[in-house]
Amino acid sequence: MGTMHYLLLCAVIFLPETPAFPIQPRPESWSSIDLERIKGYLDTFFPILAETQHLSIEERIKEMQKFFHLTVTGKLDKETEEIMTMPRCGMPDEGGHQTSPETRKWEKTHLTYKILSYTQDLPRKKVDDAIRRALMVWSDVTPLQFRRVDSGRADIEIRFARRAHGDGSPFDGRGKILAHAFLPGKRRSGDAHFDDDEKWSDVNQDINLFLVAAHEFGHSLGLTHSSDRGSLMYPYYSYQNPKTFTLPEEDKRRIQKLYGKKPSNS
Predict the structure, then answer these.
(1) Where are the extended beta strands (E) located within the chain?
(2) Domains of the chain, first to last
(3) Of the residues 55, 88, 99, 116, which has the maximum number of CB atoms within 10 A of its CB?
């Protein structure tokens, strides 16, 4: 596929309630601000689960560094700080790219979608087109089909919003979390929300809506994040020309594991 920079990105899901962060000694070289920042990041994107509640802050950092293929130091080094500040999807990264027993999928292949609100950054027709093409990324390689509806409840409801917007997962302003989506079968199953504090575009500037939407709809269909920088489901955003975008093989393999391959006569 040549040398390409893929999209990272992502979406927020709601996980089962987890134990409170255990009281741990502060590493001597860290300020209270650094400690709160790394705890906040880890609690959001690598939440404490039953099997990880015993880990120290350094051990949790190591797990995060392993996921992103960073140098494993357990410290808040430059490389780790840089990745923590990049624009990204709001969905947790815990679990990697393996399909887990909790992975959810739609039990049907014909899905409806509805756009509830728009950004003023782009004409409505360009938003409509970006959403349509982002869904086609997935329907082109599976039996899935998407039909837009304008009334009633849709399987995937899409909207732009700022800060708190009624789903318990507020956005955080420009340049951090770009969007989030909900896995099938969860509350607000399949819905995708985009932070309207971002500057959305349809070209190589600001945040490209098509690329972010394609990533988020991966979540809407049941995919979690990948630790592969070349994957569409990598959590962090990077630009790739939408006109030449091709779904990476890893993402293709994962979505086909859930829904199968597109019939040859389609």
Answers:
(1) 88-89, 110-115, 145-148, 156-161, 177-181, 192-195, 200-201, 207-208
(2) 32-86 (1.10.101.10), 110-259 (3.40.390.10)
(3) 88
Dist. CA 225–CA 94, nearest whole Å = 8
One digit per residue, pLDDT tens: the chain, 266 residues? 444 444 444 444 433 343 444 444 455 567 888 888 899 999 999 988 766 678 899 999 999 999 999 999 999 999 999 999 999 999 999 754 344 444 689 999 999 999 999 999 999 999 999 999 999 999 999 999 999 999 999 999 999 999 999 898 899 989 889 999 999 986 789 999 999 999 999 998 899 999 999 999 999 999 999 999 999 999 999 899 999 999 999 999 999 999 999 998 76
Cβ proximity of 75 and 35 under 8 Å: no
| 36 in catalytic set | no
**pTM (predicted TM-score):** 0.85
Which structure tokens are listed for 260?
Answer: 């199968």
Q: What are phi and psi of 96, to 5 degrees?
A: 65, -155
Q: List the catalytic residue out of 59, 82, 216, 249.
A: 216
